[in-house]
């Protein structure tokens, strides 16, 4: 029986149908595989909840596709500001660099230069451009005492600092390293700022840590008069916080022993104002830092805030009487979330907000427990700074800068 025309047509079309079917399946499989690979290879900014046996994702560091070619000809700070990222992943080299820096800084005179005017060191712990820079420009430029302060910036080393920081912030960046929340890197950056400020100017007397979301609450002259005659540091020292044990044990139940027993562990805001004496203590310390520089266990990563425990624990241990147990940087925790305080935005910023913050009183350690301390009850130091203010507030802040914020 000879084949019909229809059967011949089917015989010709069958191989083509098989080919198209196979190609369609292959294409679908390829797309699916690509999507899975993309999601796995792009880490998120905070580590996900993962089993303890799985490695932590690599740190997320926002990059800008620019060569980091800082101006090394600064006449203001005689330090090398050419940040090279070639060895960022070499932890041994990083540790050696920091150890050499801290060893050098620990040799400076802990006392201010006799007869020379004392200066304030403003240390900005940043990862991006300073969104509130116009307000700080006004703050520094309104004073006639331009020789009584220094500015230092610890920034993302991948950024092109000579383009991002202008005006009073030009050429103020120190050699910096990447930072990531829930790691010792924020506390290490604070120590790095202290070391460079100590080495740069022997007349730096008080060292204030600030964030990009900080604003001044008073003029520079008011801030200077408030701080310069004090012989004590302002650093929050909290002993009876609900989460204290979990933070202490974040590296393991006995990992902090014997250097840091639980009853000596303290918590406090990372935004402190340290005296020159205490700044040298911080850069000279190896005993307490040897515990806080250890990464936290994977399962405890969300209890890991070394930047809020290292300096409070150190200062409470070595010179408790030399500290006022309070921060002079205001934050509003009501309305905060995810371990962050409430952020102020847009139309919420006005004269009444600034005046209301000025009327607030700092928390002095565990005064609700130690209420019988008369010296604590009588204190009412002014807040000098406040956070967190979003970048959308800069216009409103500038509108009230002269008549409210910088008028004492």
Describe this structure in words.
- The chain is 35% helix and 8% strand.
- With 408 residues, it is α/β, with parallel strands linked by helices.
- The strands form three sheets. It has a four-stranded mixed sheet. Strands 4-9-8 form a three-stranded mixed sheet. The chain has a two-stranded parallel ribbon with strand order 5-7.
- Strand 1 (119-125), helix 3 (133-141) and strand 2 (149-154) form a beta-alpha-beta unit.
- Residues 12-90 have low confidence and may be disordered.
Task: Write the SSE topology.
Layout: H1 5-41, H2 91-105, E1 119-125, H3 133-141, E2 149-154, H4 161-164, H5 185-200, E3 204-210, E4 215-216, H6 220-227, E5 233-234, H7 244-248, E6 273-275, H8 276-284, H9 289-292, H10 310-319, E7 323-324, E8 329-330, H11 351-359, H12 374-377, E9 385-386, H13 394-399, H14 401-405
Parallel strand pairs: 1-2, 1-3, 5-7, 8-9
Antiparallel strand pairs: 3-6, 4-9
Helix pairs in contact: 2-5, 5-8
């Amino acid at each position: 029986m000879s084949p019909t025309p229809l059967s011949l047509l089917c015989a010709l079309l069958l191989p083509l149908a098989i080919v198209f079917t196979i190609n369609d399946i292959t294409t679908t499989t390829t797309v699916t595989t690509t999507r899975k690979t993309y999601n796995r290879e792009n880490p998120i900014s905070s580590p996900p909840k993962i089993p303890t046996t799985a490695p932590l994702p690599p740190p997320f560091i926002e990059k800008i596709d620019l060569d980091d070619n800082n101006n090394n000809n600064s006449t203001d700070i005689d330090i090398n500001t050419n940040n090279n990222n070639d060895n960022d992943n070499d932890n041994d080299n990083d540790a050696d660099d920091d150890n050499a820096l801290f060893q050098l800084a620990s040799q400076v005179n802990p006392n201010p230069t006799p007869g020379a005017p004392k200066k304030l060191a403003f240390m900005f712990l940043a990862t991006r451009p300073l969104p509130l820079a116009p307000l700080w420009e006004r703050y520094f430029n309104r004073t006639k005492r331009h020789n009584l302060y220094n500015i230092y910036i610890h920034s993302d080393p991948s950024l092109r600092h000579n383009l991002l920081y202008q005006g009073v912030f030009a050429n103020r960046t120190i050699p910096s390293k990447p930072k990531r929340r829930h790691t010792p890197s924020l506390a290490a950056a604070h120590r790095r700022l202290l070391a460079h400020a100590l080495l740069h100017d022997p007349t730096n007397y008080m060292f204030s840590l600030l964030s990009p979301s900080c604003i001044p609450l008073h003029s520079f002259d008011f801030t200077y008069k408030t701080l310069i005659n004090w012989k004590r540091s302002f650093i929050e020292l909290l002993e009876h916080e609900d989460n204290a044990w979990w933070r202490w044990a974040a590296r393991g139940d006995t990992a902090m022993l014997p250097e840091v027993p639980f009853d000596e562990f303290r918590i406090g805001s990372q935004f402190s104002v340290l005296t020159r004496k205490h700044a040298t203590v911080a850069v000279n310390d190896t005993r307490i830092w040897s515990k806080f520089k250890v990464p936290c266990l994977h399962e405890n990563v969300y209890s890991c805030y070394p930047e809020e425990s290292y300096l409070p624990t150190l200062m409470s241990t070595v010179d408790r009487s030399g500290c006022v147990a309070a921060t002079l940087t205001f934050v509003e925790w009501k309305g905060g979330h995810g371990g962050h305080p409430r952020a102020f935005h847009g139309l919420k910023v006005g004269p009444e907000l600034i005046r209301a913050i000025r009327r607030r009183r700092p928390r002095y350690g565990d005064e609700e427990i130690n209420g019988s301390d008369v010296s604590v009850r009588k204190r009412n130091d002014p807040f000098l700074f406040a956070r967190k203010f979003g970048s959308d507030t800069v216009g409103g802040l500038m509108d009230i800068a002269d008549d409210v914020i910088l008028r004492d």
